[in-house]
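Kindly inspect the following:
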Amino acid sequence: MAKRLSADVDIDATPEQVWEVLTDLAAYPAWNPFILRAEGAVELGRRLTVTMQPVGGRATTLRPRLVEVDVPRQLRWRGTSGMPGLMDAEHAFTLEPRGSGTRLVQQEDFRGVLVPFLAAWLDRSTLPAFVAMNEALKSRAEHAAPHIRG
């Protein structure tokens, strides 16, 4: 079974400014309510170490591999929880120019034998964490650097 979660937000900052906030992994503890900690080089093929905390859930540390780094359009990684095939996930951040700002879409596709058993929990805990992260990223990007408002 497969499951997709998706949340988007419009940000009054350029894709380059949003990308800068998104890829400054060392700053995540200062602003990110979902990905509490992230380490690694934002380079294609590299592994990151990310500690995520869903709403009402326990923090979990994963080591996904970056499968797309398209500056300033898309950041995408793949990882597994436990053994491959139990619950595999592909997480993506897509930045789309929108007027003088950016639409950020955060999306994750889950596959594996555990997905049917965890689908409702993902809706209750992980999706709200996406929304919280998107709003926090919006706030940080909009206040990080001056930009022209149209």
